[in-house]
Amino acid sequence: MSSPMARFNHIPRTLRGKMGSDFVASLVVTFSAGVVFFAIVAVLIVALP
After folding, report:
1. Would you call 38 helix, strand, or coil by DSSP?
2. Of residues 9, 7, 46, 6, the one with CA closest to residue 29
3. CA–CA separation, 35 vs 6, rounded Å?
């Protein structure tokens, strides 16, 4: 049975293989999540009067 979570976990695994470190991979994921969050907040600040 292939669950969506198993499919999702496969992506960081290939990423980790390239970078060779769990820490770096998790750092990249956290950083990109932070960038997306900051972008949403910035858009809201601009959109609201």
Report:
1. helix
2. 9
3. 25
Residue type, 47: A
Map out the domains of the chain as residue ranges: 4-47
Model pLDDT for residues 2-42, shown as the tens digit of each residue: 565 565 666 656 655 665 667 777 888 899 999 999 999 99
Q: Are 25 and 16 in contact (CB under 8 A)?
A: yes
Between CA 14 and CA 41 the distance in angstroms is 31
Report how many helices (DSSP H) and strands (DSSP E) the chain contains, helices first.
2, 0
* SS3 letters across 15-30: HHHHHCCHHHHHHHHH
- Beta-carbon contacts of 28 under 8 Å, excluding residues fewer than 6 positions away, are 15, 19
